[in-house]
């Protein structure tokens, strides 16, 4: 018997994918508005700051009308999400979407697909929609998942967030939204270890999907791309002995690889 997944894994089409992304976002907000805010900002460029939490101010001064005793401010925001199963959308269609919205403090158009628009096209779109006070963001499903997993890692004791992250990854994987050749993985606090010892590690509970290349993702960008050589389940005993179990790859683990794993765990 298969386990119950929050997301519709047997329905196809871009409308279903968009619905599931909205379901993901609404659940993030329900779990914790701050987590939702962190997630949205994690997929946006540094120059865009998305705020959902009200700002409370006491004794706020104004240019006219004197000093206000108490002031609560929430930024007005509109986010448009456009998903594409394969390929990229017509840029004219994306620009037209922005014409129908009233200018507010923050307007964002997020395009999600297997691949992203090139930098020149992104710059061109942003120039054309700037008059409507819009910002355009192009990301992949893999980047979306990596951002979600990175946020989940920051809240290790939030079981509901962990389950949501796991369910969404399984949904995207089962629907073929993630390319098996290449997978982007989140590396926040572990980035320096990944860089130093040329390996990527994660909890066994997160599972493993077979892929040829791994992208090390941190600070909203892929810093390194490496070819996957071997995958092992590793445990360091109290006595300092490394126990490994091979999952995939060519050849057995070498002494040099064992030393790198031990150094990483320590």
Topology:
Elements: H1 14-31, H2 33-42, E1 55-61, E2 67-73, E3 77-83, H3 91-99, E4 106-113, H4 119-129, E5 134-140, H5 141-154, H6 159-174, E6 182-186, H7 191-197, E7 213-218, E8 221-227, E9 230-236, E10 242-249, H8 255-265
Parallel strand pairs: 3-4, 4-5, 6-7
Antiparallel strand pairs: 1-2, 7-8, 9-10
Helix pairs in contact: 1-2, 1-6, 3-4, 5-6
Notable characteristics:
single chain; 266 residues; alpha/beta; three-stranded parallel β-sheet
Summarize the structure in words.
The chain has 266 residues and is an alpha/beta fold. It has two domains: 162 residues, no CATH class; 84 residues, no CATH class. It is 36% helix and 26% strand. It is built from eight helices and ten strands. The strands form four sheets. The protein has a three-stranded parallel β-sheet with strand order 3-4-5. Strands 6-7-8 form a three-stranded mixed β-sheet. Strands 1-2 form a two-stranded antiparallel ribbon. β4, α4 and β5 form a beta-alpha-beta unit. α1 packs across α2, α1 runs antiparallel to α6 and α3 packs parallel to α4. The model has no long low-confidence stretch (mean pLDDT 84).
């Amino acid at each position: 018997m298969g386990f119950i997944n929050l997301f519709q894994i047997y329905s196809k089409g871009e409308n279903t994918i968009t619905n599931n992304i909205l379901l993901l976002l609404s659940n993030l907000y329900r779990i914790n508005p701050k987590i939702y805010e962190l997630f949205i900002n994690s997929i946006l460029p540094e120059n865009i700051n998305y705020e959902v939490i009200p700002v409370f101010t006491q004794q706020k001064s104004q240019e006219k009308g004197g000093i206000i005793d108490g002031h609560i401010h929430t930024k007005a925001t509109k986010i448009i999400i456009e998903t594409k199963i394969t390929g990229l959308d017509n840029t004219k269609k994306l620009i037209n979407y922005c014409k129908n919205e009233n200018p507010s403090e923050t307007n964002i158009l997020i395009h999600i697909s297997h691949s992203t628009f090139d930098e020149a096209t992104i710059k061109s779109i942003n120039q054309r929609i700037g008059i409507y006070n819009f910002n355009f963001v192009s990301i992949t499903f893999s980047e979306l998942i990596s951002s979600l997993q990175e946020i989940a890692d920051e809240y290790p004791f939030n079981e509901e967030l962990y389950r949501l992250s796991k369910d969404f990854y399984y949904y995207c994987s089962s629907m073929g939204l993630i390319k098996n050749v290449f997978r982007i993985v989140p590396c926040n606090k572990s980035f320096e270890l990944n860089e130093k010892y040329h390996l990527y590690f994660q909890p066994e509970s997160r599972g493993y999907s077979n892929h040829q290349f791994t992208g090390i993702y941190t600070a909203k960008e892929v810093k390194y791309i490496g070819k996957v050589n071997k995958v092992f389940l590793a445990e360091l005993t109290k006595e300092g002995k490394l126990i490994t179990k091979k999952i995939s790859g060519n050849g057995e683990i070498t002494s040099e690889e064992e030393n790198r794993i031990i150094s990483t765990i320590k």
